[in-house]
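Before going further, learn to read the protein records used in this course. Taken together, the tokens spell out the fold as the letters spell out the chain. A record is reproduced here so that you can trace the correspondence yourselves:

***
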Amino acid sequence: MPTNAPTAAHALSDVTSSDTSLRRFLHGLPGVDAVGLEARAASLGTRSIKTTAKAYAIDLAISMVDLTTLEGADTPGKVRALGAKAVLPDPTDRSTPTTAAVCVYPDMVSAAKEAVAGSGVKVASVATAFPAGRAALDVKLADVRDAVAAGADEIDMVIDRGAFLAGRYLKVHDEIVAVKEACGAARLKVIFETGELSTYDNIRRASWLGMLAGADFIKTSTGKVAVNATPANTLLMLEAVRDFRTQTGVQVGVKPAGGIRTTKDAIKFLVLVNETVGADWLDNHWFRFGASSLLNDLLMQRQKLATGRYSGPDYVTVD
């Protein structure tokens, strides 16, 4: 059976022994056929599913949502309300699944923990000077430790994109390793900010770099830039985790984040997962949606399937 993210030496451990060997490995990865990648992602997005399968897909998608608020105006009250929604997304239908997690800033972790206590909903916290990642390593690690000490179950870190784009791969790798250690028992999601990496080749390299450093999840975006999760960049990352497990036996999760707003979008991503990596990843332990508005549309579509009527946005809470 696959394991969680690597915590011990594996078949590729020698790759990270030096900057030269890491660069050689990352630049030795096969180049990405951009036209082929985008065509396959578009083709999979046209798949239609029957009503019974759609009901299953909607519930699965709800269970995979990291319900997120990452605004400067966040308050404990707003976070508690979001936590209550994560635990009971539709108060009129208690058969609705809980979301996977609530994702907040480190100073809001304690309020989120209080709101979801006893529910099984995780609390995720962004850290490492989110979203830009422009801080010294000791500041980033203090950010992580504060979030974990407050009770965060998961940490979403951002990589140093400047170092990555400058080819300083070992620096990026070593920072992820240090953050992973600071996480303790908390799972680590590594955010690449794919919209700033410019090329698909860079996204493939970042995916492998994150996994080599011990990421539990690789994540597309912060949701704070113009280009966030797309079917194509998510497909590329799914291919990377598939190939990584083939080589190492280690399974790593994937989290597209930003720009996924509708049930139709979410189902397209679930088809990508099913067709690329299979049922092993069709679980919120291995696949998540980073979203805020997506949940409302999933709930409205779920209500329509159950009642035959489209209730509209006034029947779900405003986040």
User: Anything to note?
Assistant: The longest strand covers residues 122-127.
